[in-house]
Sequence to fold (504 residues):
Amino acid sequence: MRISGFASGLDIDEIVTNLMRAKRLPVDKLTKQKVSLEWQREQYREINSKIVDFRNNKLFNYSLTSSINAKQVNISGNTTAVSAKTTPNAVAGSMTIEVASLATATSVQSVAGQGIGTVDTSLTLSQLKAANPNFTYTADAQGKTTITINNTDIVLDENKDTLRTMITAINNSTTAGVNAFLDSTTGEISISAKNPGATSAATIAPNGLLDSFNLDAVTAGTDAQIKINGISTTRSSNTFTENGVEITLNNPTGTTAATLNVVTNTDKIVDTIKSFITDYNNLLDSVNAKLGEERFRTYQPLTSEEKKELTEDEIKMWESKAKSGLIRRDNVLSTMVNNMRLASMTNVNVAGEDIHLAEMGIGTGKWQDRGKLVIEDESKLRQMIEADPNKVVSFFTQKTTVTDPTLKVSPTNPDSGLFNRLSNSLLSAVEQLAKKAGTSQYSSDVAAAFSSASNMGEQLRSIDNRIGDWNKRLAIIENRYYKQFTAMETAMNRFSAQASSLFS
Fold:
């Protein structure tokens, strides 16, 4: 038991607290180190998130053929008979399309007037069979009956399935490859192949439930009859791809052909390059801001005791300065920024010709811009795209054929396009940050968990262990102080009792 000041009148708890305050200085120092390290790690995660997002999302999307190698197809002449859109492999040039007839699908349907009559589609097959003499089929002992379409068996339960669920089962079958329709007023059914063309099929096996519907009216499928640039040809589908253009036939062209002209979409390519430059500059700004942030070394994290002496605004101001400059001049990020600049400033060799950003009217701005890219002459960029779009696209997206592992990922590899150079430089930084701070190499989530297997993770574990050891020692010291004061109080109580007996 602790005896606190009964005899001496001293505030023992206050005295011990003051004595322990000095003893706790090493723990407070370690705690400040831990908080500072945690703040630093969080700042690495914020920057890493922006790097991963730029590399894995934005840069990846800019590298897609649909973004940087954009083409469009313009239709003239008969603009309603044919529609078209470009694919990534679209070839610049023109085509004339004449449509004599569309492709049609094979179909079978009930002979007119020979359906099973009005039907209630909510009745089960067995109920319908009992109510309608025109509806006949056989079922096994378990009530199962099978219909076969294009060699695909569809099993129905006469006690559960209805004509509505039968139609649904037919349409949902991926192997039967047909669409079915039931007219509940006439009890007639139509079944047609999902894909058109002369080879399309809608074959119904005999001696099944569908025999009741007299599916004897058969229409054979046909191929589309067309001319492409004057050459007569056929297509089994009304949608097909020619020279990288996806063409859809809507109706016959008659006397006016449709002309498809594939051209480079200069506006879209320029917009893609502009968006890339904006995102590139935003990333550079974020990283450079942290690399150049002022460090206030006299401002350290506050302990809980220190915070009690300050207002909320004072705490906020103090911690703002304490967090400033924690990753100033970081080696990993500084190297990444230098590599990004090198990647942008170095020529790319396209088909034996060295191409530089300046030739496209793109510069690196003023010195104080710290490597940011600027479109200085947009007309120059547009002229180069229109003159040779493949050259511009290759400058950004060219894949290297170099096998040397060091040169392959180098920011100055002349065989590698700008996007690939940047991707490699950013990947290297992300991998190093993962080792250093435990940040994610794949997620741009600013709340993503840290990996414990990192240098900073090990440092934090070490500090936690040291704090734990110190707290155990402080507990022993504190108990010793209380024992000493308790002994003093006990002695004073004994002395007081003896004095009282002497003078009583």
